[in-house]
TrEMBL record, chain A:
One of its GO terms (biological process) is purine nucleobase metabolic process. Keywords: 2Fe-2S, Iron, Iron-sulfur, Metal-binding, Oxidoreductase. The keyword Cell membrane does not apply. This is (2Fe-2S)-binding domain protein. InterPro entries: 2Fe-2S-bd, 2Fe-2S-bd_dom_sf, 2Fe-2S_ferredoxin-like_sf, 2Fe-2S_ferredoxin-type, 2Fe2S_fd_BS, Beta-grasp_dom_sf, Diverse_Oxidoreductases, XdhC_XDHase. Residues 3-79 form the 2Fe-2S ferredoxin-type domain. It holds the Pfam family Fer2_2. The lineage of its organism: Bacteria, Bacillati, Bacillota, Bacilli, Lactobacillales. It comes from Agrilactobacillus composti DSM 18527 = JCM 14202. The keyword Flavoprotein does not apply.
From TrEMBL, chain B:
GO terms for molecular function: iron ion binding; xanthine dehydrogenase activity. Pfam families: Ald_Xan_dh_C (PF01315), MoCoBD_1 (PF02738), MoCoBD_2 (PF20256). GO terms for cellular component: xanthine dehydrogenase complex. It comes from the Bacteria. PANTHER family: ALDEHYDE OXIDASE 1-RELATED, XANTHINE DEHYDROGENASE. Coiled coil: none annotated. Residues 21-137 form the Aldehyde oxidase/xanthine dehydrogenase a/b hammerhead domain. This is Xanthine dehydrogenase subunit XdhA. The keyword Ribonucleoprotein does not apply.
Length: 171, 769
């Protein structure tokens, strides 16, 4: 059975008639061809499928697609700046050497970006807690945490580089 | 003009931008029209025979197109191990499986398959297939499978699939000569690779009527051969493409689902079919790290001389041979590589059982044997009252040692430097003293420090074939397309290999263009990503191709400007005069001319293929600091440092990242990880909730240093690094726990439960269990 929903996807108003059994992850990948969001476990354990829903990091594999109705959703394809320039957190991941196989990276980048938005300043311990729902097997997390710290330091040094707010998010 | 060295620079990965943008396509990300979905019917017993299938209800599920039983597919026996093909039949991997089977050897064995229009339909059909079994006794351990009355798991051969002994000297005499003999039994768990991307493969008939298989594989060229063998097709009828892959760690060095994906497409008249394993399938039904049991006797004199080491090894192979004895049989050479001793006997058996098939996993047997060795070495130091670092410094092999067990001279072997520089960088003395002071407070926790050392080979010579090829194409604007069969699997090989090409050519790093896809039709032959071999073996191929290309460019410049070639050099993309650095021309101008000059146009391609007959031994150590809760047995890892002797570091940023990942994997090995089975051989924790992969909260900041030298043999002074970091953290942590609580625990993982039990046992009065 399909159900029509309306929501904001990466800043754009969209409509989708979606199978009510589908997860948000399946809808994003199959119906919107946004394959940047990855499936690592399908049951909310690994965080590879993290997306931002109304300013909260959510595992899209255990979030029903129909629940997206009326929400604002940001995927990895939607966090770069409008002209295609990398978001500061994306640039920090590259600079810190946080990327290896890259499969956890979309979820990790989004979770990190939201974490930065939620905190004016972050300690390493807070970054660790904030990213504890996102698993990585390549990096030991060292350079991922470095990357978030780097992005945090850069925005402290230059408030203008503060990570851009997501599209029309209402808390 | 000075040559700008690109080797040793922290260049950013060329693929990092695509990966942070979500633009990088992995196997499951390619849009394929009318894609069908294949799912595997897994056995729900661990040992037995399928006497009948009832597929009548399953066939009725809407969207189900075909149900495949073993008889429907070719019965060619093959091995899934990612080794190069061997021309000598006797030396080949054991060929003991077919794509689907009625003979169930492991829980989850592939006994059937469904092809459907949607994954959901396929899944529903699986649940409606009724299977009847004859059940056989289940053997979970080598000892059980070796019992006299044990049934053969494969009718063709004994459950002990191989038994070897290597060593030197008289071990019995050595044990008699010792002042102390330590006798230990040590056990390592079934560790899982747990790459974030599960195995996934898509197969379809291409326009040329051959079959293309897009797969998340570490070994595209080997994959092509095994897919062809399993399906009984000529090798050239298969084309394998490997896009970005979400980690492998050795699990994707076995060809698990690809033959079946191609068979499914064939069954559907060439339509595209995808097999996309679930997390639960990937964890329990693919490959694992061998669980190995060690029975060790070590003789030591009061002055620290090791008189004898006798190590008896039982390697739990699981249901199919896969890489087989190559792993359990490997340790002797590397014990000899690391420590001097009067005698050594390393006897190893690899045994079929009914647990998941063990295969290659990062470190390939070394994390197991180094755990066993470094526990006993540490205990021996304690026994004679010698500092554990001093004991290792006294006994390690010197630089230039000739290892008679592998016929390899260990040139530039820097374990001594690691053991000296590591403790200093770690502040070992201060940490040890601090722990002592901390423990005097008699609070609920204890602290301790521990060390463990290792040795590691680079690639597989002299045991395996080592060949690789490279191709460089000069493009019209002066950039270069680099084509290699060596496989990027997330480790950064493509970036390191591009640095090598740029360095030898004398052009900027950005001038080298790689490809996300490795394609067996177009890329030169290389056996793939394993054995920490690629920067070493493919490095030679790249150096050869780049030198050839450089020569061609200079020849063109020499002809164009009438200057002798030896007077010219290529620096940062410019062709300059050697004597004064003055600009003569540019690589770009020569490239343009090579395409478009009316008289002389002739494009430039340089090709190479190498066969390498040498090995450079690497080494290193880990230092660990822990805090143990005496009431709960919980271990907190306070700090962890790896020290590596890996020759020249090609890219320090990537190298550090790779080391940290390996340290985390080994910390998990020592502390939390292990697939467990019930008595019937059913896996109990094949999910990421119950299989304890380290999260951000479980690890401290990870630290590493490199004892950097230039290996005399490595193509760019480099030697192995990829797997090395997984060798020594687990035993270093175990030794730190022993330092903290005074009890050496010989079975990993050191879960709170096992530590608690060990502490209780140590407290119990003697004679009371």
């Amino acid at each position: 059975m399909k159900h029509e929903i309306n929501f904001t996807l990466n800043g754009e108003a969209v409509t989708c008639a979606v199978d009510i059994r589908k997860s948000l992850l399946e809808m994003l990948r199959d119906d919107f061809e946004l394959t940047g969001t990855k499936e690592g476990c399908g049951v909310g354990e690994c965080g590879a499928c993290s997306v931002i829903i109304d300013g909260r990091t959510v595992d899209s594999c255990i979030y029903l697609a129909v629940w997206a109705d009326g929400k604002a959703i940001t995927t990895i394809e939607g966090i770069a700046q409008a002209d295609g320039q990398l978001a500061p957190i994306q640039a920090a991941f590259i600079e810190a050497g946080a990327v290896q196989c890259g499969f956890c990276i979309p979820g990790m980048v989004l979770a990190s970006d939201q974490l930065l938005k939620d905190h004016a300043q972050l300690s390493r311990a807070e970054i660790r807690r904030g990213l504890s729902g996102n698993m990585c097997r390549c990096t030991g997390y060292q350079k991922i945490i470095d990357a978030v710290q780097l992005a945090d330091a850069k925005r402290q040094a230059d408030p203008k580089t503060v990570v851009l707010p997501h599209f029309n998010i209402e808390r | 003009m000075a040559q700008k060295h690109i080797i040793g620079q922290a260049e950013s990965r060329w693929d990092a931008i695509a990966k942070v943008k979500g633009q990088a396509n992995y196997t499951g990300d390619f849009p394929i029209k009318n894609l069908l979905h294949g799912k595997i019917l897994h056995a729900t017993i661990a040992h037995g025979y399928v006497t009948s299938y009832d597929i009548s209800e399953a066939e009725k599920v809407p969207g189900v197109l075909k149900i495949l039983l073993p008889e429907d597919l070719p019965q060619n026996k093959y091995s899934t191990a990612g080794h190069p093909w061997n021309l000598e039949p006797k030396k080949r991997d054991i060929e003991d499986r077919t794509m689907l089977t009625r003979h169930v050897r492991v829980y989850g064995d592939d006994i059937g398959a469904v092809i459907a229009k949607t994954p959901l339909a396929a899944k529903q059909a699986l649940s409606k297939i009724k299977v009847t079994y004859d059940t056989y006794p289940v053997y979970l351990t080598p000892k059980a499978a070796m019992a006299l009355d044990a049934k053969r798991i494969h009718a063709e051969r004994n459950n002990v699939i191989a038994s070897t002994a290597v060593g030197f000297g008289d071990v019995n005499q050595g044990l008699e000569d010792a002042d102390f003999v330590l006798h230990r039994q040590l056990h390592t768990p079934v560790q899982l690779h747990a790459h974030l991307e599960n195995q996934v493969a898509t197969a379809f008939q291409s326009e040329d009527q051959r079959y293309t298989c897009i797969s998340s594989t570490q070994i595209p060229h080997i994959c092509r051969r095994i897919v062809a063998q399993a399906n009984g097709l000529p090798w050239s009828l298969i084309r394998v493409k490997k896009p970005f892959i979400g980690g492998g760690f050795g699990n994707k060095q076995d060809v698990t689902i690809e033959p079946l994906a191609v068979a499914m497409s064939q069954a559907m008249g060439g339509k595209p079919v995808q097999i996309n394993l679930t997390r639960e399938e990937s964890l329990a039904y693919t490959r694992t790290r061998h669980a190995i049991d060690y029975d060790v006797k070590l003789g030591v004199k009061k002055d620290g001389t090791i008189t004898a080491l006798d190590m008896q090894v039982l390697s739990n192979q699981g249901g199919y041979a896969s890489h087989g004895h190559a792993i359990g049989g490997k340790g002797g050479t590397f014990i000899n590589a690391l420590y001097k001793m009067n005698s050594l006997n390393y006897g190893a058996k690899t045994v079929y059982t009914n647990i998941a098939t063990a295969g290659a996993m990062r470190g390939y047997g070394m994390p197991q044997v180094i755990f066993a060795l470094e526990c006993v070495i540490d205990d021996a130091a304690d026994k004679i009252g010698m500092d554990p670092i001093e004991f290792r410094l006294k006994n390690h092999q010197p630089d230039g040692f000739y290892n008679e067990l592998s016929h390899t001279k260990q040139q530039d072997f820097r374990i001594g430097d690691c053991l000296k520089q590591g403790p200093q960088a770690f502040k070992w003395q201060q940490k040890a003293q601090h722990a002592k002071a901390f423990n005097q407070h008699q609070g609920p926790t204890r602290r301790g420090v521990g060390i463990a050392a290792f040795s590691f080979g680079t690639a597989t010579y002299p045991f395996g074939l080592e060949t690789s090829g490279a191709r460089l194409i000069l493009l019209p604007d002066g950039s270069f397309k680099l084509m290699v069969g060596a496989t990027e699997i997330g480790q950064g090989a493509d970036t390191a290999l591009s640095q090598m090409a740029a360095d030898t050519l004398g052009v900027p790093f950005e001038s080298i263009i790689r490809d996300a896809i490795t394609d067996t039709d177009t890329d030169p032959f290389d056996t793939g990503a394993y054995a920490s071999r690629q920067t070493y073996i493919a490095g030679y191929a790249i150096r050869d191709a780049a030198e050839k290309m450089r020569k061609m460019i200079i020849q063109r410049a020499a002809a164009t400007f009438d200057i002798r070639g030896e007077f010219m050099d290529i620096v940062d993309g410019n062709i300059v005069s050697v004597s004064d650095g003055d600009l003569i021309t540019t690589v770009k101008d020569m490239a343009q001319a090579s395409y478009f000059d009316w008289q002389t146009a002739k494009t430039m391609v340089a090709e190479s293929s190498v066969n390498i007959h040498n090995n450079s031994y690497a080494s290193g150590c880990t230092l660990a600091e822990v805090e143990v809760d005496l009431q709960t047995g919980k271990i907190k890892l306070l700090s962890l440092m790896n020290v590596h002797d890996s020759g020249k570091i090609i890219n320090p940023l990537l190298a550090a990242g790779q080391v940290e990942g390996g340290m985390a994997m080994s910390a998990g090995y020592g502390l939390n990880e292990g697939l467990v089975y019930d008595d019937l051989g059913r896996p109990m924790n094949n999910n990421l909730l119950d299989y304890k992969l380290p999260t951000t909260m479980d690890l401290p900041d990870l630290d590493e240093i490199f004892v950097e030298t230039k290996d005399p043999l490595g193509p760019y002074g480099n030697k192995a690094l990829g797997e090395n970091p997984t060798c020594s953290p687990a035993p270093a942590i175990r030794n730190a726990v022993k330092n903290a609580v005074g009890v050496g625990i010989d079975t990993i993982p050191l879960t709170p439960e096992s530590v608690y039990d060990a502490l209780q046992a140590a407290k119990a009065p003697k004679g009371v269990s």
